[in-house]
Design a protein that fits this description.
Elements: E1 4-12, E2 18-26, H1 31-41, E3 52-57, E4 64-68, E5 75-80, E6 92-94, H2 103-123
Antiparallel strand pairs: 1-2, 3-4, 3-5, 4-6
Length: 124
């Protein structure tokens, strides 16, 4: 009888849809194979890059920046969105001393961002 391995996985997309699955593979997975697989699937790299944003340290000041895509230098964390950014040339500054924003002000900023993303996707 041939060696078989079962690979079980959890698929999760940016909208947090989840489904378990499994694949039957021929052969035996070695410890090196499993280590490599875990490394490849670790963190945000297993997500579609058009849904990942990176929060970065601001450099000289204590401000932070949110930029589209995966970045590693000065990274604080990743954010995952439902709407893809498709590498739009957009960055957001998070001031070290934030100012309050109203609900209407936030809605306007989100609308502006959506328009920019749609315009960028149309031009890509």
């Amino acid at each position: 009888m041939k060696d078989l391995s079962v690979f079980e996985y959890l698929y999760r997309d940016a909208s947090n849809f989840k489904v378990w699955g499994s694949v039957l593979l021929r052969g035996s997975a070695t410890a090196a194979h499993l280590a490599r697989l875990r490394h490849c699937l670790a963190g945000a790299r297993s997500l579609h890059p058009h849904h990942v944003w990176t929060v970065l340290e601001g450099g000289e000041g204590s401000d932070q920046w949110i930029t589209p895509g995966l970045h590693y230098v000065n990274r604080i964390c990743y954010l995952v969105t439902r709407v893809p950014h498709v590498d739009a040339p957009i960055a957001f500054r998070i001031e070290s001393k934030p100012r309050p924003i109203t609900t209407i002000g936030l809605a306007r900023r989100i609308t502006t961002l959506r328009r920019l993303l749609v315009a960028h996707q149309a031009s890509a």
